[in-house]
Design a protein that fits this description.
It contains nine helices and eleven strands. The chain has 221 residues and is α/β, with parallel strands linked by helices. Helix 6 links the parallel strand 8 and strand 9. Helix 8 runs parallel beside helix 9. The chain starts with a strand and ends with a helix.
């Protein structure tokens, strides 16, 4: 089973930073999910929210943001791919439109071994597929309405929130040849429930607990 940190080891280090990514791997996770946004000068920055401490990312250049105390640890997509592209499983979540060419080019150049690119935005998924049909893509779903879109999208991975999981859903996705990764699972009982349904991966804020819980199951299997 694929064990991934949510924005790195988010419970233990600042999210979406190299420190959080390093810690997730130290805990024993196979890799991590992280969020990509765009700056005013068309560069990438790893950040979940569009605003942090009243600073709107898209209104500032990457250099301006990194000079801000709140973004001193901020990295770009290329930083993450260069550091982890050959050693970790990467789930790249695209948060905004317009980044598709940058994402496709960076992933091609990095020659990643294990990854998928996901988004809540269907048009982002379609655009990435149009740019490069070899890209490994995933569909995110937090609501049942979002979940209903997966058969229409050119994706290999389907990533439903753990509250949407059911045995029927997992079986249907597997029957369609999809890989099922669920998020964000932070309690031991929910991790065990998801594993019992046969999901292929779990994303958690608590990478230490995730590895402690699922590690013995993996060894037993």
């Amino acid at each position: 089973m694929l064990l991934l940190g949510h924005r790195g080891a988010r419970f233990y280090a600042p999210e979406n930073t190299l420190a959080a990514f390093d810690l997730a791997l130290e805990h024993g996770a196979h890799g991590f999910e992280f969020d990509v946004r765009r700056t005013r000068d068309g560069k990438t920055i790893l950040c979940h929210d569009r605003r942090v401490n009243r600073v709107t990312l898209r209104r500032h250049t990457l250099q301006q943001l990194q000079e801000n105390r709140g973004f001193r640890e901020a990295a770009g997509l290329e930083d993450a791919l260069e550091r982890y592209g050959r050693t970790a499983f990467l789930n790249i979540e695209v948060k905004v439109r317009g980044l598709e060419p940058l994402i496709a080019q960076a992933v091609r150049q990095a020659q990643l071994n294990r990854y998928f690119i996901s988004s809540f935005l269907p048009d982002v998924v379609y655009k990435l597929h149009q740019l490069d049909r070899t890209l490994v893509l995933g569909a995110l779903a937090k609501t049942r309405w979002q979940l209903r879109r997966w058969p229409l999208l050119p994706v290999t991975y389907v990533v439903p929130h753990y509250r949407l999981l059911s045995q029927e859903l997992v079986d249907a996705l597997h029957a369609a040849g999809k890989t099922v990764v669920t998020w964000t699972v932070n309690e031991r009982l929910h991790m065990l429930r998801a594993a019992g349904m046969g999901v292929d991966g779990i994303i958690s804020d608590d990478t230490r607990l995730l590895v402690e819980t699922m590690g013995p199951l993996k060894q037993a299997g």
